[in-house]
Design brief:
globular; disordered N terminus
Length: 237
Amino acid sequence: MISLPRFFKERQFLQMAALVLLVLLLAIGALPGYLEGKWQWKQPPPIINLGEIKKLRKTGLAIPGWKITQQQEQMLGSGKWSLQIMEKDGGKQTAILLLLPQNGPKDQPQVEWTEIDSWGRMQWGEWQVAQYRQAKFAVKQPQVKEETKVKARFFRAHSKQQTFAALQWYAMPNGGHFSPLNWFWADQFAQWHKQRVPWVAVSLFIPMEPLGEVETTWEQVKSIGETVQTRLFNFNT
């Protein structure tokens, strides 16, 4: 015979386990799909404008005031990126913009920043990152009432041949963040409303003084980053 204290302990444990399971189901947005007899992650809602997003690989992204001098699809790691080189003021200013658009409804951001580091080492040899910090900026986008906020990775990347100021984040229609977890929770919440959150990985490089202070480039880098965030997902402009 089971003693009463043990019985109540086991019952409390089962209740707690059931509660934890329910919270997990709610957190990942699976409960609506479960009640309908289908799992949400196996049949995710479609992504609006996915076709236009994928075209970025072939077309690149037009940035007002900048001329694209070279653009091509570039295989980096497991993904196909758009690699474009831009110049401004007759070549006095240059920039490299790498974009990895979402490729399908089940495609998730994962190891893109590691792949970019590998690309840097292939291009310029020894590749080191320094003066890293999290950077914030905000832009006003036509389809969103409030300013959209972005939290990006900002750092100096250098080799023996070249030094860059770098800015990286996952751009989304309602903002951006350098962590894939931020997109994951936003997308799970959107699926409650039968919607999705598309994403584009952005990696921007601006040449700077060899081994200089990356903070001296912040205003310039932020300005381009704001334009990139504004232009992405605005397919009618």
